[in-house]
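Q: I have 155 residues here and want to know how they pack in 3D. Can you give me a structure?
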Amino acid sequence: MPELPEVQSTLLSIYPYLIRKKILFSVVRNSNLRLPISREIYKIKNYIIVDLFRKGKYLIIHLNYGYIIIHLGMSGNLCILPNHQSNIFNNNDHIDLFISNNKILRYNDVRRFGLFVWVYDFSTFKFISNLGPDPFSSKFSAIYFFSILRQKKLL
């Protein structure tokens, strides 16, 4: 399973190719992931990518009309490909987002434990709403960590 540093590395690697670009359309080859692919993913057409960020191990693409939430699951990955490679794919390449800069954001997941869903408010999404503060944020401090540890029973 990709851990937090790998998810952060993925975010940093795709960010320059996606920020302030337009998703022209999507191609969904397999909707059989941990949760079904949202209907809105199929209908994406000319949505602008406003921001990309991470909340826990979830990658969030903020669009001008909502959010795409991606979790890589056990074996998932995202890669940027040139547009002319759109016809080269395998059985584990589930989703392509065609970007206005002649690139493709491709989601590949061998085990299909990942997520690729659409929401209008990411903060109410059931998998994200209960996450604690990010370890890299200012809210996560030694005092916060100590207070959480004091509430736990140790063996």
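Q: Anything worth noting?
A: The helical segments are 4-18, 39-42, 142-150. The first strand starts at residue 22 and ends at 28.
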